Amino acid sequence: xxxxxxxxxxxxxxxxxxxxxxxxxxxxxxxxxxxxxxxxxxxxxxxxxxxxxxxxxxxxxxxxxxxxxxxxxxxxxxxxxxxxxxxxxxxxxxxxxxxxxxxxxxxxxxxxxxxxxxxxxxxxxxxxxxxxxxxxxxxxxxxxxxxxxxxxxxxxxxxxxxxxxxxxxxxxxxxxxxxxxxxxxxxxxxxxxxxxxxxxxxxxxxxxxxxxxxxxxxxxxxxxxxxxxxxxxxxxxxxxxxxxxxxxxxxxxxxxxxxxxxxxxxxxxxxxxxxxxxxxxxxxxxxxxxxxxxxxxxxxxxxxxxxxxxxxxxxxxxxxxxxxxxxxxxxxxxxxxxxxxxxxxxxxxxxxxxxxxxxxxxxxxxxxxxxxxxxxxxxxxxxxxxxx
Length: 388
Fold this sequence. Notes:
Layout: H1 4-10, E1 20-21, E2 35-45, E3 51-56, E4 63-67, E5 72-76, E6 82-87, E7 105-108, E8 111-116, E9 119-124, E10 129-133, E11 151-154, E12 157-160, H2 174-179, E13 181-187, E14 193-198, E15 219-224, E16 227-232, E17 235-242, E18 251-254, E19 283-289, E20 295-300, H3 305-315, H4 319-326, E21 332-337, E22 352-360, E23 363-368, E24 378-387
Antiparallel strand pairs: 1-24, 2-24, 3-4, 4-5, 5-6, 7-8, 8-9, 9-10, 11-12, 12-13, 13-14, 15-16, 16-17, 17-18, 19-20, 20-21, 22-23, 23-24
Helix pairs in contact: 3-4
């Protein structure tokens, strides 16, 4: 039976007299603002599956989605009617190069771009292959988050996290920290890749004495205008660059999380891999610059050594139980950060799952939390930030 709450939320528009848009918040410290994601619209698709919204075309006429269980790609109209449906993983000549490493995005109104571990593919909306861009090195995907955003397009350039160029340095280690760079830039006109962005001196990952693991410095970044904002998984800092200079940050801001467990100086990571403790360090999940100059961030605080030992020992080899038990200790969620202070955790209705796409404070898309609802169709929720 479908959850009554789900049926109520799926098609209704919420008008709360006691709420106001975050952009209309009275002038008071961010630390005193109590915010929430308010559902006010939805995209419903006649499909039984766990759909996630990847992108919306520039003209707003097409929505790009993916089934998180089967990797099937969908293109729908704004009302959720399916226009195209196809699968592009595997050994087919038109498949994604290697493993899909992140979400697809619209390159323009007529084509989409999907990153893979061995290159980048552009497709027509129908799924027909347009062009494959392959770097002059072998991609290396030791840690992949396929539902993360690992590339952004600005003009005729694609900025992408595509590791592998520095494989001769290994996947981690002091030489890797000193000599490697984080991102690749694909020139769509020439098809050439070039590497940019060494670890900045203001990052702990530039250390020449302490070694960190690949999981620690897994990057998440976004582009807004002529700026690129980078965060690393286990460092509470935002590195802001101009697109004209991706070698040295224009600014660095430390995020004052109430708790954020970082790797200890005497804790050496597993050589070329991960151990269970690594998964329970503090974790930056996502960053979205807002039109008001703030950053919408999502993070997890991480577990202390004692807490991590407890959950890993109790779960033994049951990986799912390990993460379920860790939720008892792992605090965090969404916050706003203005460069100096942070808001309290933003309230998120339980029916909301993953933040799928941020357009503005008035248009934030979430996938459905399938643990909270049973349904025979898919729904993506449109929300906005409001004060309570």
